[in-house]
Design brief:
Structural class: mainly alpha
Strand content: under 5%
Distance between the termini: 72 Å
Order of helices and strands: HHHHHH
Largest sheet: none
Length: about 130
């Protein structure tokens, strides 16, 4: 009886542990299936959409007192200079003639690039 009870307890632990561990999978739909959930009908804003992306992907190198390449992307006025000369989009799209950014990493997602382009197409306002 003790052996059977031990076996039942052990079996339940294995089932529960397998369910907990096997049920967690962290990958995004865009990578797995090519599905994007990017809403291209809205117009991005600098403070809500663009600046958080720059902080996440760019400002580790391009902010502060000595930004990499003397390119600072931590304020609207700085960013607007690179929007005006085309280098912001050229770099993040990895266009020929521009240094591909983020350096040493892949491009931003198509959705992130579309959000930045949406903001630029709407006039690149400080909003």
């Amino acid at each position: 009886m003790k052996v059977r009870l031990f076996f039942l307890k052990t079996s339940w632990l294995v089932i529960i542990a397998g369910g907990l561990l096997g049920g967690c999978y962290y990958d995004n739909e865009e990578t797995l299936y090519g599905i994007t959930t990017c809403d291209s009908t809205f117009v991005s804003t600098f403070n809500t959409d663009v600046l958080p992306m720059l902080e996440k992907y760019c400002n580790g190198c391009h902010a502060g007192s000595s930004p990499s390449g003397d390119i600072s992307l931590d304020t609207y006025s700085n960013v607007s200079n690179y929007v005006s000369n085309g280098s912001l989009m050229g770099s993040i799209r990895h266009d020929p003639g521009f240094k591909a950014m983020p350096e040493g990493r892949g491009k931003l997602s198509a959705c992130d690039i579309k959000k930045i382009q949406s903001w630029i197409d709407a006039g690149a306002a400080n909003n």
